[in-house]
Specification:
The chain is α+β, with helices and mostly antiparallel strands. The chain has three domains: 87 residues, Rossmann fold (3-Layer(aba) Sandwich), CATH 3.40.50; 62 residues, ATP-grasp fold, A domain (Dna Ligase, domain 1, 2-Layer Sandwich); 129 residues, 2-Layer Sandwich (D-amino Acid Aminotransferase, Chain A, domain 1). The chain is 30% helix and 25% strand. An eight-stranded antiparallel sheet has the order 13-12-9-10-11-14-16-15, sandwiched between helices. Strands 3-2-1-4 form a four-stranded parallel sheet, sandwiched between helices. A four-stranded antiparallel sheet has the order 5-8-6-7, sandwiched between helices. α2 packs across α3. Bound molecules: adenosine-5'-triphosphate and magnesium ion. Adenosine-5'-triphosphate binds next to β6 and β13.
Length: 369
């Protein structure tokens, strides 16, 4: 390899598999993140304690490093920084504008509506919004327009609940704005894809489980999905149209959507990155044998992704998140009844037991096949 320097933005638990894969492929890995929670720090060759949102400082350092690629695995916060640095260094990535719009739920909705792809009712709201609007189709979901990790998500059934939901959601938004959306019906899934030069390749659907109302925190994911076969082509085509409308040309996408019993698809959001919660880093490889981590590294280094099957295709791949004592008991039972099925158990943050409010303060997780 001529230039083997690869920059990874973020060093948390969900970036660790990316750093390890890059090392395995022979890259010299330079990692940027805050020290706190930087579990990938010791695996990287170089670590810089700079906030992943400090795009100017990271760009300056990257000019010295002169990497062949810059990327992140599943971090919404890191995406604009990755695109900013890549744009300045003329590396392979979506534009900064595209990266920013893919982290803003309102912008995403606006662009999809203008492109005629999947447009449920939505509106921007803040502390001054007129809640007497008769057009609001209750029940609605209220969420911060520009946050992630299931923070500040609320279901509102009437005007009173809406007022309180907006107030709380705005508290999680850097711009103090929330988006009010029609409640999309159906089972929830995500679609994992890789794009290169504007062409999108489908890799897997993932069935998602959440805690449901009122806060919808993700508590598990499984591949393969249980979507009826006859719906799949039209779902893929809707998702590809939406990804194209957003202007995504390079790298992973993680599209969250719901499908009702008639096959109608409602997109919840699209991240121009791998699915977090080990969907991109582990589940895709375990259930398809296709090395998604290598694909995103390939693309970041301006190479077409290798779509071949290189690993064992397991019947299923699943992640369970731990919230409560009961979840730990379930894992303990599995350890004695079927230990071979367990691929990985994360570190547990016991101080979060029974106190989870969003994706950032779950206790831990385990992956099974
Ligand atoms: N319009 C909607 N209709 C129905 N359910 C929704 C809608 N919007 C969000 N949800 C539910 O809330 C969850 C979180 O919403 P969303 O993905 O937009 O927020 P997030 O902060 O990005 O969360 P995460 O990081 O967990 O994906 C979704 O996975 C879904 O279960
Ligand atoms: Mg989401």
């Amino acid at each position: 390899m001529e230039n083997n320097k690869l920059v990874v933005i973020g060093a948390g638990e969900f970036q660790l598999p990316l750093v390890l894969k890059a090392k395995e492929l022979g890259y010299e890995v330079h990692c940027f993140a805050w020290e706190a929670g930087a579990v990938a720090k010791d695996e990287a060759d170089f670590f810089y304690p700079i906030s992943i949102t400090d795009k100017e400082a990271i760009l300056e350092k990257c000019k010295e490093i002169n990497p062949v690629g810059v990327l992140t695995a599943g971090s919404d916060l890191a995406m604009p920084t990755v695109a900013y640095v890549c744009e300045a260094l003329k590396l392979c990535c979506n534009s900064y504008e595209v990266a920013c719009r893919c982290t803003n739920k309102y912008e995403m909705r606006r662009i999809m509506r203008d492109a005629g792809v999947c447009s449920p009712f939505f509106m921007l709201a803040d502390a001054n919004t007129d809640l007497c609007d008769d057009a609001i189709p209750y029940p609605v979901i209220v969420k911060p327009s520009d946050s992630s990790g299931s923070r500040g998500i609320h279901l509102a059934n009437n005007r009173e609940e809406l007022a309180s939901a907006i107030k709380q959601s705005c508290g999680f938004s850097p711009t103090s704005t929330a988006i009010i959306e029609e409640y999309i019906q159906g089972n929830e899934y995500s679609c994992e894809c890789i794009s290169y030069e504007g062409n999108h390749t489908f890799l897997a659907f993932t069935k998602k489980f959440t805690t449901g109302a009122p806060n919808y925190i993700e508590n598990g994911h499984i591949q393969p999905d249980d979507i009826p076969e006859e719906f799949k082509d039209s779902i893929k085509s809707t998702i590809f149209k939406a990804i194209t409308a957003l202007g995504v040309t390079y790298g992973a996408t993680h599209t969250e959507f719901k499908v009702d019993s008639e096959g109608n698809v409602g997109i919840i959001e699209i991240g121009a990155r791998m699915g977090g919660g080990c969907i991109g880093s582990d589940l895709v490889y375990l259930s398809t044998g296709k090395d998604f981590l290598k694909m995103i590294i390939d693309v970041a280094c301006s190479k077409a992704p290798d779509l071949s099957v290189t690993g064992t295709v397991h019947k299923q791949a699943k992640i369970d998140f731990i919230f409560t004592e009961k979840d730990i008991e379930k894992l303990e039972k599995l350890k004695s009844s079927n230990p071979e099925s367990i691929v990985r158990i994360s570190k547990f943050n016991m101080e979060n037991l029974g106190k989870t409010t969003d994706c950032s303060n779950r206790v831990g997780y385990y992956i099974t096949i």
